[in-house]
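Q: I have two molecules that I believe assemble together. Could you output structure tokens for the complex as a whole instead of separate predictions?
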Amino acid sequence: QKEVEQDPGPLSVPEGAIVSLNCTYSNSAFQYFMWYRQYSRKGPELLMYTYSSGNKEDGRFTAQVDKSSKYISLFIRDSQPSDSATYLCAFADRTGGFKTIFGAGTRLFVKA
Amino acid sequence: SAVISQKPSRDICQRGTSLTIQCQVDSQVTMMFWYRQQPGQSLTLIATANQGSEATYESGFVIDKFPISRPNLTFSTLTVSNMSPEDSSIYLCSVATLNTEAFFGQGTRLTVV
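A: Yes, here they are, computed for all two components at once.
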């Protein structure tokens, strides 16, 4: 079993749709849960960052962590063409070291 | 958050040559990492750059091919040695501290011809 599973997509949605991006993980020691957005030909930029279970909202973005199910989600409301990018989930266990483990990334296309 | 400057942003190199990529951070950070992202792929950790000691390499990556330096807490270099077309990738510098998430530079897009 892979440590992190993420559907690579591509995922294509119309403008204004609600987008749900998901990852599962197997390492119960992960404490930090992150979502990065990567535009073509750019480095990943941190989008959302949560510690432990629960929800975190930032504008049109909501990150959700369910540690009992080892499942995290990123929701994008009112999606825009500018949201078209690759979204990578990422996990870290800082007590076990400093490494961050990344998912494969989901390519999202939002059509105008 | 940390601001990371990475140079060069892109380069086209001849096979058999070497390229050194620089990573400068605007604040002292505990850990610095080097990743490779091959076309259409996710991030693969090459090594952890340790200040004042040899880098810690991940499986499949060796010091002779990817020598790394980290002379202080804000600067690191990655050299891609004896390049071949298979080394064409984006190389990314990343930093983290004990209580923060990882931040990335903009990456170096390397094409080997």
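A: One point stands out. Chain A has a mean pLDDT of 91.
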